[in-house]
Design goal:
heterodimer, A: 274 residues, mainly alpha, B: 207 residues, alpha/beta, three-stranded antiparallel beta sheet, 8 strands, globular
Chain lengths: 274, 207
């Protein structure tokens, strides 16, 4: 049985440790600096394109920077401290194996969300600074990215119970890419752009497996061809597929998968050698 | 050593494997540690000393007929009665020596306040408390590890290659006097055998 106090104690200690990780502090600060640069770049040039330039830059920061942070905090969550004896030390001191896993899920996802929140605030402040005011669609997109990145982190944490950091990280990024691919292919299949023999496969994968949460902002940028390299128009078999924004079902489905990977991570610490 | 129900540790044909390892790193270890007694497991590098301790504590999978404080290895109900000092640098990055001590104190219900941390680290004469634990000098790392084992005055001390500082010797003697059992490993017999009174030799995983 997991009791609250040891879990919270261990999570707090891990957060304290993460606060002192140079790369994480630099990534968080780097995102804030990037927000300023995004705003400066967007402010120059035609006003009509300002919104698209700003949102494309913001989306790039959230995706690329977010993946770095998500993989970084997740892929090392449970392997290193199991191998170096720290988990053995604290397990004998009085925290159950599953609670160790849960504490790391809490602290690592928590750290990710703190960084995303920091970037969200700096992006909104930058938007105000260049005269655009607060950006509601960007705020919604940030929430969608928070969920997508949490999934990446949780896949990496679950992988770190049995794999090294690099492998766990690669798999987590792979799941993210696959989740985006399933959403794109499903849209293409619905529009008749995928061969019939593959439609059932695509639909089955889409229904069963994790899928990306696409915000209205990113769907709009992508479908208009204004999303830059991180949100290209989806072209398949010589035609462009229109990928709609995700609905509430996808939001809930991805949350369910987040829960599943969190449970995998917690359960994985049971049999892990400390 | 005496066998029987009063033993702190009773192991019959204990085998311990490395994680996912095909072969046992420790095979057929049979020994008893009586309550209030001491025992040193002596063996060279790679002989399986650390693996033996990890098996007894349930940190690695083990086979055999084994009791630790009357229960199976890894039973969380007896963990509070065990003090464990791993070797080397068993610490998470980013935590200071004081942070590690505070965490262990809190997990043991002793409170992690500064006074308790200072009191604990004073017992092992660890001065460099604000330094990141993974960067401690080897001697201080051992002191910190040993300090973690002392929290709560446990009934069984499990010490992986403790260095024989005066504070360590003092605390081991105090533990034995209050009826605790002490199991330690060492690469060579040294003073620990005189201190603990009994030894077994481990070579290539066989005791």
């Amino acid at each position: 049985m997991i009791t609250a106090t040891p879990t919270l104690l261990a999570a707090r200690a891990d957060l304290r440790s993460l606060r002192r990780r140079g790369w994480l502090v630099m990534a968080a600060g780097g995102g804030v600096v990037a927000s300023v640069l995004i705003a400066v770049i967007a402010a120059f040039g035609a006003e009509a394109a300002r919104t698209d330039r700003f949102r494309t830059g913001a989306s790039s920061l959230l995706l690329l920077g977010g993946l770095v942070v998500a993989v970084g905090v997740g892929a090392t969550a449970l392997n290193r401290d199991a191998d170096n004896g720290f988990f053995g030390l604290v397990h004998i001191a009085g925290i159950r194996r599953e609670a160790i896993g849960l504490s790391r899920v809490m602290s690592r996802v928590g750290a990710l969300l703190v960084v995303v929140a920091l970037w969200a605030i700096s992006l909104q402040a930058a938007s105000v600074a260049i005269g655009r005011g607060l950006d509601g669609p960007l705020a919604v997109h940030t929430l969608a990215m928070a969920e997508n990145l949490s999934l990446v982190t949780l896949v990496a944490i679950a992988g770190s119970t049995v794999l090294g950091a690099t492998t766990a990280g690669v798999i987590a990024v792979g799941v993210n890419l696959a989740a985006q691919a399933f959403a794109n292919l499903r849209a293409a299949a619905e529009q008749g752009l995928v061969a019939t023999v593959w439609r059932n496969v695509v639909s089955g994968a889409y229904l069963a497996l994790p899928r990306i949460v696409d915000s209205p902002l990113i769907a709009d940028l992508r479908n208009r061809g204004e999303g830059g390299p991180i949100a290209r128009r989806f072209e398949i078999n010589g035609a462009f597929a229109t990928v709609q924004a995700s609905g509430i079902v996808t939001v809930l489905w991805t949350l369910l998968w987040c829960g599943a990977f969190a449970a995998l991570a917690v359960n994985g610490t049971r049999g892990r050698s400390f | 050593m005496s066998a029987g129900a009063s033993a702190a540790i009773r192991a019959v044909e204990l085998s311990v494997r490395y994680e996912r390892g095909a072969e046992a790193a420790v095979r057929g270890a049979t020994f008893t540690l009586a309550r209030g007694a001491g025992l040193v497991v002596v063996g060279g590098p790679g002989s399986g000393k650390t693996t033996l301790l990890r098996g007894l504590l349930g940190l690695s999978a083990c086979d055999g007929d084994v009791d630790v404080l009357g229960s199976f290895p890894g039973d969380p109900r007896v963990h509070r009665r065990i003090g464990y000092a791993p070797e080397r640098w068993p610490y998470a990055r980013g935590l200071s020596a004081a942070d590690v001590a505070a965490l262990v104190l809190s997990l043991r219900g002793q409170g992690g306040q500064a006074a308790a941390v200072d009191g604990l680290l004073d017992r092992v004469a660890l001065a460099d408390r604000d330094r990141e634990a993974v960067t401690l000098e080897a001697e201080d790392s051992r002191r910190l590890s040993f300090a973690c084992a002392l929290v709560g005055n446990p009934d069984l001390l499990v010490l992986d290659d403790p260095w024989e500082f005066p504070e360590v010797v003092t605390e081991i003697r105090a533990a034995l006097r209050r009826g605790a059992s002490v199991l330690a490993t060492a690469p060579e017999p040294g003073g620990l055998v005189d201190l603990l009174g009994a030894r077994i030799d481990l070579a290539s995983g066989v005791a």
